[in-house]
Amino acid sequence: MTINSFFLYPKSPFHFDGTFHKPSHFPNKLPLDDWQPGKYWQLMRVGEKLFGLRIEDRGDVYNPKLKVTAYFNFDNLRDDRLKDGKTKLPQSELELIKKEIIYRYELDQDLSDFIKLTKKNKRFTPVFNRWLGMRNSCEHNLYELLIISIVLQNATVHRSVQMLDNLLVKYGDQTEFDHKKFYAIWRPENLKYVSEQKLRNLKIGYRAKFIKRLTEDFIDKKVDEFSLRKMTKESARNELMKLYGVGPETSRILLFEALHHYDAFDHIAPWQQKIYSQLFYNQPLVSANKIKKDIIKHYGRYSMLAVHYIWEDIFWRRKNEKIDWLEKEIRL
DNA sequence: CATCAGGGCCCTG
DNA sequence: CAGGGCCCTGAT
After folding, report:
1. HhH-GPD domain: from which residue to which, for each copy (predicted)?
2. Most buried among A88, A91, A96, A129, by the most CB within 10 A?
3. Mean pLDDT over residues A102-113, rounded?
4. Has this prediction a pTM greater than 0.90?
5. Which residues 256-275 on A are within 7 A of strand B at the CB atom?
């Protein structure tokens, strides 16, 4: 294994912990990443290779600076193609990794318009101030996030965790760096010859068919993450909705998290509606249309981003404090 | 023991 | 456009 480190300088302001840890995401047993204040670890796929990343906070909100340590050439990977035997990482690959980190964690995003907007509506100003500089980041590539979205469909959190873990044990890449063990979601190619029945054996139910067909679409380049990244929200949504097993909620997740469209607020799932109703109205249930109208009125093209701040804020609070109405709606 | 809904989506009529 | 069915699981 070899190691390479470098620095990255996010656009100011930047909130390290808010960006690298999202407490609303479900914690699976087989870790895809790890976080402690000021430090973050994950396995990241760039091209066909897998890298271990340790990202450390070496600055502050107004002078952000990240130290990135990249580990590669693991000895213990199942797939030999993922290591190339070279000990030094070529400059071109290093640039690719940097670009990918910058994209997934939105390090270059200019949030000044959004920040101005959040000052207009006083009600949530404390929340926006608390997380000033937080990004809508996504540790995963599009395929990986799609897999996670599929196991989330029509299941309780507990079962989603079980489904993902079953899949990871069988098909994920497992490796260790910086004295920590991590899993990474497989490349589509690694699932190519796995039958639907084999997948069903992992208790993922009818989702097996979705994963099978979606994986084929990625292998056949019917979906290309990099061209989707360049599209408008509407065209990207159209493309995603064509995929078998991708509906309004899954495409919203992908548009917002993986493709970073801040206005991807077209769809509100019933369980989210209940949480939004409490957060925004202190009421058990407000109509989804009203919620949508009100949020868009206040936050316009930043509607989903604004909701993300308020959403994550309550889940941060939940770490130290019991919030009864929230516990009820999360349904582990 | 049976029944049911769940952090959606597909398919049919 | 509405509504039934889908895999499986834990709750009732």
Report:
1. 151-319
2. A96
3. 98
4. yes
5. 269-271
Q: Is A67 among the domain residues? A: yes
CB atoms within 10 A of CB A329: 15
Using an 8 Å Cβ cutoff, are A26 and A161 in contact? Answer: yes
| Span A130-160, pLDDT tens digits | 999 999 999 999 999 999 999 999 999 999 9
Length of chain A: 332
Q: How many domains are contained in chain A?
A: 2
Q: The tokens of A17 are what?
A: 């912990």
Residue A115 near residue A128, CB atoms below 8 Å:
yes
Work out the end-to-end distance of chain A between its first and last CA atoms, rounded to an integer number of angstroms. Answer: 38
Q: Looking at the predicted structure, is the pLDDT value of residue A79 above 70?
A: no
Which residue intervals of chain A are DSSP H helices?
A: 16-20, 91-104, 112-120, 125-130, 142-152, 157-171, 196-200, 207-219, 225-230, 233-241, 248-253, 270-281, 288-299, 303-320, 324-330
Structural domain includes residue A306: no
A236-CA/B10-C1' distance, Å: 21
Query: Interior CA angle at A106 toward A279 and A91, to 5°?
Result: 155
| Strand boundaries in A9-48, DSSP class E | 33-36, 39-46
How far apart, in whole angstroms, are the C-alpha atoms of residue A176 and residue A327?
34
For chain A residues 191-220, those near strand C by a CB cutoff of 7 A are 200, 203-207, 209
